[in-house]
Amino acid sequence: MNLPDAQPPISGGALQLWAPTESELPMLAEVARAAYADHYLHYWEADDNGRYYMDLSFSEAALRREYADPNVYLCGLKLAGELVGYLKINRVARSDDPPGLIGTELEKLYLRKAAAGRGLGSQAMAAADRIAIESGQGLIWLKVMAENHATVRFYQRLGFAAVHRFRIDIPHMHDHLRGMLVMARKL
Fold first, then answer.
1. What are the residue ranges spanned by the domains of the chain?
2. I need a surface site. Which of 31, 37, 110, 169 has the fewest CB within 10 A?
3. How far apart are CA 177 and CA 33, in angstroms?
């Protein structure tokens, strides 16, 4: 299994990291798809509606591959026992764009719309920081859609700075929304 046995509640017990067993990965896939759909379907052409990306990222086969990788920290986010989000962290990762950026990558953090705005993202980031430090990393980095201004501001409030900009090349995405930022923060 790619997660520590138990994760204590973060910040007074409000948010809990849920380490799924392999047989529970379909539940994790379901919340990941739902949380992504809550916020990002407008990035995709109507004939696809995000299916390509969600199949690529959240299929049971994709999650099983990630689950088997000891470098990947894959978990659900629970609030009062309800599964409300998805977190994927690459403990040690090297960025291809820009080259040479090495640290812990926060690859995915998605919350259901009903759970957003409650400080859970900040609590999840505190967990990501802890994982990075436990992994011996002094830097945490991520990629975010450049046009997702609210999320960019969220990461800026947490001390992240944009270090690179590029355009994502993925089928079915609206061309004007392909801008990506790489953001990083020293720990």
1. 15-186
2. 169
3. 20
